[in-house]
Amino acid sequence: MLPFRPTVALKELFQSQLKRPLTRTTAAEVKAAPAACFSTSGPDRRSPGVGRPFTGWRSPQLIRKPGFRGLCSKGDGHGDASRDSDKRRKPGILPSLEDLLFYTIAEGQEKIPAHKFTTALKSTGLRTGDPRLKECMEMLKMTLKTTSDGALDRHLFKKCVQSNIVLLTQAFRKKFVVPDFQSFSAHIDDLYENAKNLSGGQVADYIPQLARFSPDLWGVALCTVDGQRHTVGDTKVPFCLQSCVKPLKYAVAVHDHGTEYVHRFIGKEPSGLRFNKLFLNEDDKPHNPMVNAGAIVCTSLIKQGASNAEKFDYMMNFMNKLAGNEYVGFSNATFQSERESGDRNFAIGYYLKEKKCFPEGTDMTAILDFYFQLCSIEVTCESASVMAATLANGGFCPITGERVLSPEAVRNTLSLMHSCGMYDFSGQFAFHVGLPAKSGVAGGILLVVPNVMGIMCWSPPLDKLGNSVRGIQFCTDLVSLCNFHNYDNLRHFAKKLDPRREGGDQRVKSVINLLFAAYTGDVSALRRFCCSSVISGYLLGSWFCSGSDVWCHCAGLHCPPWTWSRGTMTPGRHCTSLLLKDTLRWFGSCWRPARSTPSLKTGGGTHQWTRRCTSATTMS
């Protein structure tokens, strides 16, 4: 993420508010005050018991003059709204989100190289191939054909981004679920490298197609609910979903028929037995849809009465929607091998048929063929991570915005993944990781962090329980680093990283709110900031009272000149904004230095401010 440097943007923000250039204040300018100015003639509403070391200033009050239109209410002159709007859109005045985005990326330059824009975009987690940015990217390509230097001025940049400005603004203002995506991606890379060094495990070899995979293959891909993407390792190699498809087809069945109908045929409890056991619960139903018996019955509930060809097309369309139209394929060789070596599953099928577990009129052999087909669907880590993110996003695909599954189907699916998704390791995984997941014998682990992201880990070597060795290690390390466990305390578990929170002090958000309050002329908000303990007045002055240098040092790195007069802090001679100058003078009358706890060094000694007004109600 590029750092926000408001060298030009903030200057134009205040120019648009003050309707004049920001220059050093002179006596003539003070006399020729703008239509909306501050008056010191109003009554002083401060408590009479509070000392007033600097009596030359009183609480500023906003005076409305004839013809002046307030920013927050309708009154005289509100009919000139369109004219005022046109004035704001003159060149040199910040008129729109597009311009703000331009200044954020340009960092004081007049043009933005196209590669700089795409690099900044990728740092937020978005991809140039994101379907939501299709119009922007197409316009960018067309625009670059007309430019010789591959750079965009403000007009061309606005033309390119205006069709997707809402999404881009969210990205660059860090409004996504993972604000500091670059930092989080670096942590993911570290976890990947840590798991990569693991050895051990054995590649599944019950069919030749699985045995051919190299044990060195290892990939991790993630997709957040806002469509932020990150991949590392072998994430473009296709592999079969195998058992990872079980929660997906269960979700489709519940989406089509509802929970009550589906669970007439399938239970909800962990079995405590091997996934391919010929065993039913006390009601003669499969224990859950994550074991082979339950998955076979669940397969029989999809598109009942249709042919296998129609069923397969239906499921492939559903898979494509879940994956945001990214890669979803089919391995016919794996399907043939599964059918030839599927004696155990045929035995389970006949046992289910004997116990009348299928819906009436079901062709058991056709259902088993369809079951093997679904296990042979191919994905990559990248496309499977979007499937997981769709589950994390309540059934909405994060990169297309399309609703694919009902909330009921997603909730039930995640519940069963949490309790039954990791074969005989399900209890241990729920205890240590605490997240919904489903593993497969091809080496994949489909991991869901509800309301945050979906992750696909893939590495062929399996442990004795049939789970990916590297995948289990990655998931365990992820929850050890981040507070993603379902029962992590988000408030008090400070030792864990919370990627959902923006890094830095809470004061950063207050700074942004303060700047926009000044831009909109919200004096009451400025007063509240001054009287709150979140924003220190010294930092407030650092942003606005350093003359021409304020735009280069608005982060508070440059110490402005202050004048200590009569025991009160007042802004120095370099304050350039009448609005802010009066506000800061009022601020100086409400605070006094407390010499008992020195913390701020000035030319006159050490001081710390003590607030004189105890609540926001005393400010107006």
Summed up:
The chain is an alpha+beta fold and 620 residues long. Helix content is 41%, strand content 11%.
Main β sheet profile:
5 strands, antiparallel
Helix content: 40-55%
In round numbers, the mean pLDDT is: 77
Q: Pick out the low-confidence regions.
A: 1-10, 16-94, 532-538, 545-576, 590-620
**Beta strand %:** 5-15%
Which tags fit this structure?
620 residues; alpha+beta; 3-stranded antiparallel β-sheet; Glutaminase_EF-hand
SSE topology:
Layout: H1 9-18, H2 27-31, E1 37-39, E2 61-63, H3 81-88, H4 97-106, E3 112-113, H5 114-123, H6 134-145, E4 151-152, H7 154-161, H8 165-172, H9 181-196, E5 202-203, H10 208-211, E6 219-224, E7 229-233, E8 239-240, H11 246-257, H12 259-262, H13 292-300, H14 308-322, E9 328-330, H15 332-340, H16 343-354, H17 364-375, E10 377-379, H18 381-392, H19 407-420, H20 426-432, E11 437-439, E12 444-449, E13 453-458, E14 461-462, H21 469-481, H22 507-520, H23 523-531, H24 537-544, E15 562-565, E16 568-571, H25 578-590, E17 591-593, E18 600-602, E19 605-607, E20 609-611
Helix pairs in contact: 1-22, 4-8, 6-7, 9-21, 11-19, 13-16, 13-17, 14-17, 15-17, 22-23, 23-25
EC number: 3.5.1.2
Protein name: glutaminase
GO molecular function: glutaminase activity
Structure, described:
This protein is an alpha+beta fold and 620 residues long. 41% of the residues lie in helices and 11% in strands. The chain has a five-stranded antiparallel β-sheet with strand order 7-6-13-12-11. A three-stranded antiparallel β-sheet has the order 8-10-9. It has a two-stranded antiparallel sheet with strand order 1-2. A hairpin with a 4-residue loop joins strand 6 (219-224) and strand 7. The model is unreliable at 1-10, 16-94, 532-538, 545-576 and 590-620 (pLDDT under 50). One of its GO terms (biological process) is L-glutamine catabolic process. Pfam families: EF-hand_14, Glutaminase. It catalyses: L-glutamine + H2O = L-glutamate + NH4(+). One of its GO terms (molecular function) is glutaminase activity. Residues 37-92 are annotated as: Disordered.
